[in-house]
Amino acid sequence: MPKKKGGSMLGSWSFLIGVILALIFGLIGNLSPGVTYVLVVLGIVIGLLNIAEEEVTPFLMAGTVLVIVSTLGQGVVQLVPIFFVTLQALTMLFVPATIIVALKHVFSLARH
Questions:
Q1: Phi/psi at 27 (nearest 5 deg)?
Q2: Residue closest to 40 by CA, chosen among 78, 80, 90, 74
Q3: What's the confidence (pLDDT) of residue 13?
Q4: CA 52, CA 50: separation in Å to the nearest integer?
Q5: Contacts of 85 (CB under 8 A, 6+ apart)
Q6: Which residues contact 52 (CB under 8 A, 6 or more apart)?
Q7: Which of 15, 28, 47, 67 could form a disulfide with 97 if both were Cys (CB 3.0 to 4.6 A apart)?
Q8: What is the pLDDT of residues 15-58, one digit of tens each?
Q9: Where are the domains of the chain?
């Protein structure tokens, strides 16, 4: 789990809880609007609080690959609802986190 030096416990817990919830709700097959909002908010918190400067590049690489593979994988596993919904849940968590981290990185590059 990514950690900041002197890091944010909220960010660390958001990451852990978000991944666990995405997997649980994906396996249960329950992606109600409430669950969707929770996953998106946790993704935003992860992006804002949990990724240290030295972790940006690895996170963006892994997050981008995860989003691409999860999105494309949904088409492959659509006949297996458990996998389909689990990939949707992971996508809902990691898209906002990846967008936030990418935006923060772009702004930090613009400042230099």
A1: -70, -35
A2: 90
A3: 84
A4: 7
A5: 25, 26, 27, 29, 30, 31
A6: 2, 3, 4, 5, 7
A7: 47
A8: 889 899 999 998 898 889 999 999 999 999 999 988 888 889 99
A9: 9-111
> Which residues fall within 8 angstroms of residue 71, CB to CB, at 6 or more apart?
87, 91
How far, in whole angstroms, is CA 62 from its chain's centroid? 10
Q: How many CB atoms lie within 10 A of CB 109?
A: 8
Residue that is written with structure tokens 């930090």 in the block: 108
| Helix or strand holding residue 84 (H, E) | helix 81-111
What CA–CA distance (Å, rounded) separates 48 from 100?
7
For 27-37, the pLDDT digits (tens) are 898 889 999 99
| pLDDT, position 56 | 92
Q: How far apart are CA 8 and CA 50, in angstroms?
A: 7
Q: Is the pLDDT of residue 6 over 80?
A: no
* Length reported for the chain: 112
Fill in the amino acid letter for 101: V
Q: Which two tokens stand for residue 102?
A: 């990418």
Q: Residue with structure tokens 């690895």?
A: 58
